[in-house]
Amino acid sequence: GGGWWSGHLIKALDAATGLPLPAFASTVMPEANGLFDGCTDRNSAVTHTAEWAFDPGFSLGVTWPADKELAIQAFLVLDETVWYEVYGSTGTADPVPAKLDCPRKERLSIPAIVVGFAPIVIIFLCATVLKHTPGLRGLSQWLDHTGPKQKAPKMHPIVGMATFDVVPGCIDMTVGEWLCFVLYFVCMVVSLVLSIVMINGGAKVVKGQNEGDVTLSPWDVVVGRATGHTLMISMANTMFLPTRNSFLGSLSGVSFERMVRYHRVIGRFTFCLTILHGVLHIAYWGIADCFSTYPICYGLNKLWGSISGILFIIAMVGSLDIIRRKMWELFFFSHMLVFPAFVFACLHATDFIWHLIGPLALLVVDMALRMLQTMRKSTVVQAEAMEGGVVRLQIQCPSLAMALHRKGVNGLGAFVYVRSWQASWNPMDLHPFTISGIVCGSKPGDKVITTPNAGSKEEAEGITLHIKSMGKGQWSDRLVNAVAAGSKISVGLEGPYVELSINIKAYSTVLCVAGGIGITPFSHLLEMYLTRKEECFPNVQKLCIVWAVQKMDQTTCFSQLLEQASSWKADGSLEVLVYATRESKEREMRAVDESNGIVQRLSGRPDLDEILGRLTENGQQSRTCCSMGCGPPQMISDVRAKSRKLGVHTHFETFLL
């Protein structure tokens, strides 16, 4: 044969099995040709060895066992984007294709890559513009707070497991979140199509001996390889989102714990691509080929890709809500498998490393900053065990406390990641807890800041955390037991992290709804309201805090704060409603605080419809009211739905980590 080819690879195969035959062992090699060392049997393949394109024809003599049918597979490379596969055999049946030892490196589709990464750029660019453009505030609020007005139905755990928590997570999404996800999925589909077009245009197959018998590559091969390209982009996108100190969050105003929701959804999409990529490969090549170690054109071998896929699937299963909430350590360690999965993915498809440069750079910077934060001096000056399996930690950390104090109202809802050797010896086992107060002074029992003067920046010395045991054997339970046993507690703090989705200063009425230990972000808010109202809440005319607990004795951990609130001036600007949901009315009435009605202790469950209707004048003043919530998921869902029904903007604590 001959022609203006830039290169070629000719392989001798057993037509029945596709295994290599050493048919070129005694062949006299023409000029610019030689045996190919990349095959399992170097005597079974001949390749072009010159650095220039060739035109003169040449012939190859072959010998093979008489009991076998010989198949010849030739890869003819025209240029870097076009190559052909030619098959022929001495038998009548179509030969089994050889394992693909491609003589060139498969190129990626640049348009597909641009389109694949475009949604991340577009979303953060739009969020940044909305945050920093006062005239677009109305649009920003509409995107952030418009969503379903009915309470999300409680999903059976099987539904969550079967859909990998996608269905429960999508039910209550806002318009802005839906637009982001639709944009992402549309771009990824377009990227997939572009990859298919590129592969189909550059990998044609000529079957048989007839020159006119030219067809496109089998659809499952093309789509399977294209999903691999799209999978690399989607994997890289998942890495952009969960970094805690990313400049993306600072510019766009989206805190990292809210980016985790996007990270979860994109991770589910990546999981689907992983399954599709594997299924299409198995459909064409068979499951045994998934674990083969022969060289491939886009990486080292397919074994590494299969290992990467298996690790990623394990990490995906470990991220299910039922595992993450009940067995956090299992979730954490299974999630760490994504890092070796990425390494194996890079071995399987070497171009993947280029996709990871951006997110890996962000991750390295983020990890360095987090390490520096945990090395910051943080001393537990008091650890107190309280009712209901709750501990109160007073931690001296001046730099953190002063940073939060400077933020003022913008520091509300701030949380830190806590590491404690008394709860876990794993240095990476950190758990998020909301800061419940800023402390003036560094001695055990020092009170929270009580007056504007005492609360100067120089006197903010520490913070308080209230941590509740979330179940026997859990990290929080081990810490609670250590405090109860009198052990000396040491902690490392990472953070603080905070970015409210609403601007409290823009509202005249603020409603806070808490369930159980979910009162912690609002205890900080209440302290600030009592001590720095004119500075931090100049426009807030009414603050209503609704706190639901199972039994009234669970409020003792904040009894001092409730006493301070009860002495507030009786001008109707403050209302604290504490509900005990599992105590009788007769027993409850004996505990009522009669101090001018500011702090009221009640039995039963709060009537949120009545409370919201009263605060908004039945929806007439909904735009001047905002609601915030922290507590059990069903309570949060209820508050969210009732607030949206009246058009009240909402913010909720979320730790989907």
Structure description:
The chain has 657 residues and is α/β, with parallel strands linked by helices. Helices cover 40% and strands 18% of the residues. It contains 20 helices and 19 strands. The strands form three sheets. Strands 2-3-1-4-5-6-7 form a seven-stranded mixed beta sheet. A six-stranded antiparallel beta sheet has the order 8-9-12-11-10-13. Strands 17-16-15-14-18-19 form a six-stranded parallel beta sheet, with helices on both faces. Strand 15 (542-549), helix 17 (559-566) and strand 16 form a beta-alpha-beta unit. The radius of gyration is 32 Å and the shape is elongated.
Portion of residues within helices: 40-55%
Strand ordering within the main sheet: 2-3-1-4-5-6-7
Regions with pLDDT < 50 over 5+ consecutive residues? 98-106, 203-217, 449-458, 588-595
Range of strand content: 15-25%
Alpha plus pi helix count: 20
Largest sheet: 7 strands, mixed
Termini separation: 61 Å
Please report the total strand number as a whole number: 19
Instruction: Name the shape in a single word.
Output: elongated
Rg, Å, rounded: 32 Å
Summarize model confidence as the mean pLDDT: 80
Classification by helices and strands = alpha/beta
Briefly summarize what is shown.
This protein is of the alpha/beta class.
List keywords for this structure.
single chain; alpha/beta; 657 residues; 19 strands
List the helices and strands and how they pair.
Elements: E1 7-14, E2 33-35, E3 45-48, E4 70-77, E5 83-89, H1 110-132, H2 137-145, H3 157-162, H4 166-170, H5 175-202, E6 203-206, E7 214-216, H6 219-240, H7 247-252, H8 256-285, H9 302-318, H10 321-326, H11 328-335, H12 338-348, H13 352-374, E8 379-386, E9 390-396, H14 398-407, E10 415-420, E11 431-440, E12 460-468, H15 475-484, E13 491-497, E14 509-515, H16 520-536, E15 542-549, H17 559-566, E16 574-580, H18 585-589, E17 599-603, H19 608-615, E18 625-630, H20 633-646, E19 649-652
Parallel strand pairs: 5-6, 14-15, 14-18, 15-16, 16-17, 18-19
Antiparallel strand pairs: 1-3, 1-4, 2-3, 4-5, 6-7, 8-9, 9-12, 10-11, 10-13, 11-12
Helix pairs in contact: 1-5, 1-6, 5-6, 6-8, 6-13, 8-9, 9-11, 9-12, 19-20
